[in-house]
Amino acid sequence: MRLLLDTHVLLWWLDDPALLSSAASKAISDGKNTVYVSAAVVWEIAIKKALAKLETPDDIESAMEQNRFVPLPVTIQHALAVLGLPDHHGDPFDRLLIAQAGLEGFKLVSRNPYALRYGMPHIIA
Questions:
Q1: Are 109 and 28 in contact (CB under 8 A)?
Q2: How many domains does the chain have?
Q3: Could you list the residue range(s) of the whole structural domain that residue 79 is in?
Q4: What is the reported pLDDT for 87?
Q5: Which residues of 90-114 are buried (b: 16+ CB within 10 A; e: fewer)?
Q6: CA distances (Å), 19 to each of 11, 22, 28, 32, 61, in order?
Q7: Fewer CB within 10 Å, N side or C side of the chain?
Q8: Which residues contact 74 (CB under 8 A, 6 or more apart)?
Q9: 61-112, pLDDT tens digit by residue?
């Protein structure tokens, strides 16, 4: 299975995995699954960290490598796919993750209820 982590899921995994559901923890830790982190997630973290709204590891790339998470770039195709999404959710980072998960055939791991509204495969975090 190929998973795409939402921002809060990545942060919880790195800081306090007990915050995650057992299904999410099991899926992320299962070595048979490939776990992706979008550049959009890291961008959102960087923005919030710069605004002092969030504390995160200083070297997010090393933390991702240590956890065998695969970086997912944002492509033009991903960005354009946002245009085809219903307007269920206004957050641009979340909408981009939905578009990426849909195009790439990933299961989105998130606790945000918007994922259910898009009808895409997901694991509730």
A1: yes
A2: 1
A3: 2-124
A4: 82
A5: eeebbbbbbbbbbebebbbbbbbeb
A6: 10, 9, 13, 22, 22
A7: N
A8: 38, 39, 40, 96, 100
A9: 999 999 999 999 999 999 999 999 988 877 899 999 999 999 999 999 999 8
Question: 0.85 exceeded by the pTM?
Answer: yes
Degrees, nearest 5: CA angle 100-37-7 = 90
3-class SS of residue 2: strand
Give whole-number Cα distances, 37 to 9, 42, 44, 121, 125, in Å. 10, 8, 12, 16, 15
| Measured distance CA(43)–CA(83) in Å, rounded | 20
CATH number of domain containing 43? 3.40.50.1010
CB count within 10 Å of CB 122 equals: 22
Amino acid at 38: S
Give the whole-angstrom CA distance, residue 78 versus residue 26. Answer: 28
One-letter amino acid at 67 equals N
